[in-house]
């Protein structure tokens, strides 16, 4: 699954017009018409390329009244580019955790109601607890206040938990929003 996502990512960037769109969006959000004008392409062509970039999660859109602005997911771009070097992590025996080990870790570090007793000191076990928590967070995007509110129901030290979720690539933060990485990007 991870290889399929990487392949789709690189195919999406395998077009010079899409690379030009990414370069423009790195400088800030743009409306579709602005992109078409800057690239000297038809609006339908730009829409096609934006659709391809949205499909792999590199571009998202936000509406401001009657105008849709396209933004670059810079963090996602960095993560996908770097993930090529991390393909082998899923099969790394040091990070592999069997279903039995996962169950034992969760039993040790969770209260009966599912809240977190403590974050494990060992990285491998911490990843199990973080994956569990990430699965409980059903929304794709959170503001920092929303993230704190949700995490407070699971663990008292929300700042540490947010930091751990980001450092271990379960979530990423961009422009004040916390967005969950797709499950297939998790190293667990």
Question: Briefly, what is this?
Answer:
With 188 residues, the protein is an alpha+beta fold. The chain has helices at residues 2-12, 16-26, 32-39, 43-55, 74-83, 99-109, 123-136, 144-152, 158-167; strands at 30-31, 59-64, 67-72, 141-143, 171-174, 177-180.
Describe this entry's structure for a reader.
Keywords: DNA-binding, Transcription, Transcription regulation. Pfam families: DUF2087, HTH_20. This is ArsR family transcriptional regulator. Residues 1-92 form the HTH arsR-type domain. The protein has 9 helices and 6 strands, in the order ααβααββαααβααββ. The protein is α+β, with helices and mostly antiparallel strands. It has 2 domains: 2-76, Orthogonal Bundle (Arc Repressor Mutant, subunit A); 93-185, no CATH class. The strands form 2 sheets. A 3-stranded antiparallel sheet has the order 1-3-2. The two termini are 13 Å apart. Residues 88-92 have low confidence and may be disordered.
Which features characterize this protein?
2 domains; 6 strands; Arc Repressor Mutant, subunit A
**Global mean pLDDT:** 84
Poorly predicted residue ranges: 88-92
Helix % is 40-55%
Topology as a string of helices (H) and strands (E):
HHEHHEEHHHEHHEE
Q: How many DSSP helices?
A: 9
The biggest sheet, with number of strands, parallel, antiparallel or mixed sense and barrel status, is:
3 strands, antiparallel
- As a whole number of angstroms, the C-alpha radius of gyration is 19 Å
Structural class: alpha+beta
Shape: elongated
Termini distance? 13 Å
DSSP, total strands: 6
